[in-house]
Design brief:
Length: about 90
């Protein structure tokens, strides 16, 4: 495998990792909002919110340490995940 193919595989892995982390982030956001609205668990909701921010921030920070392209691809994966989760939840909520 030459260097260009290896670079494409690596960059694809960053995009995929961003999609996975983004999907987990937005599904947990939906779950967190329902928890707060239905049960009124403000303390648990705040802890979950901080955990979501910490995980997403940590993963994006690790990508940023690798360079601009991995960070951009991971952020693009998170953005794609947002659209996918919101589209999937539209059917559940409505």
């Amino acid at each position: 495998m030459n260097v260009d193919a290896l670079m494409l595989v690596t960059l694809g892995a960053y995009l995929t990792a961003g999609f996975v982390v983004g999907t987990l982030y937005f599904v947990c956001l939906w779950w967190n909002a329902r928890l707060l609205a239905e049960r009124g668990g403000a303390g648990v909701s705040i802890l979950l919110m901080l955990a979501r921010f910490a995980v997403l921030g940590g993963v994006l920070t690790l990508a940023a340490r690798e360079g601009a392209m991995p960070l951009l691809l991971m952020a693009a994966g998170v953005l794609i995940a947002r659209f996918a989760v919101m589209r999937g939840l539209r059917a559940v909520v409505l």
